[in-house]
Amino acid sequence: MSFKHRLAKLLFEGALLKRIERTGYSFLGTGREDVAGHSFGVILCTFFLCKIFQGKVNEDKALKMALFHDFPEARTGDFNAVNKLYNSSDEKKALKEAFSGLPFEEEVLILFEEYRNGETLEAKIVHDADTLDLIVQLKEQRDLNNPFAERWINYARRRLLLNESKALASAILETEWCAWWLERLLQERNEQGSS
């Protein structure tokens, strides 16, 4: 099989993450998200955290780590906290088989292992980015009156490792989920009304 065909298969495997639902939302009662959408949020949070730590972190490494942190779920599925009480999966094996024989197999496996070990600043950033993306989703659900979102937010906040991540979580929780567009719309209407 040619290298390009091998990459094509990986692209289809990655695309499956757009159709695998994150399972925790069924326990929350509202909201939904697929694994790929979550991965995008983690990459975005990782990018922002890297900017906070600028000069102290290998941004390229952290972003790659974020990109692949849930890639094995194309093969294993998404296990939420309750599922993990009864089930386990070999994510490392799934990732190894997915990237087997490719020239960047070792790079991806090393990044994944570093993320799972959680000892480097890059791994801690991605860990916290994973949690911050969840907090963003939970804040939206809280703003939309889900009575259980606050409990989940409190649990998620306790998982944050870095002070910078904790400060960003506080800012997220102080901001309405719709503020980015609603404030601008209201400003525009006020400006039109005063002219």
UniProtKB/TrEMBL annotation:
Enzyme class: hydrolase
Segment forming the signal sequence: none
GO molecular function: 5'-deoxynucleotidase activity; metal ion binding
Domain of life: Bacteria
Chain segments annotated as transmembrane: none
InterPro entries: HD/PDEase_dom (IPR003607), HD_domain (IPR006674), YfbR/HDDC2 (IPR039356)
Alphabetical list of SMART domains matching this protein: HDc (SM00471)
PANTHER family: 5'-DEOXYNUCLEOTIDASE HDDC2
Designated name of the protein: 5'-deoxynucleotidase
Organism of derivation: Caldimicrobium thiodismutans
Lineage: Bacteria, Pseudomonadati, Thermodesulfobacteriota, Thermodesulfobacteria, Thermodesulfobacteriales
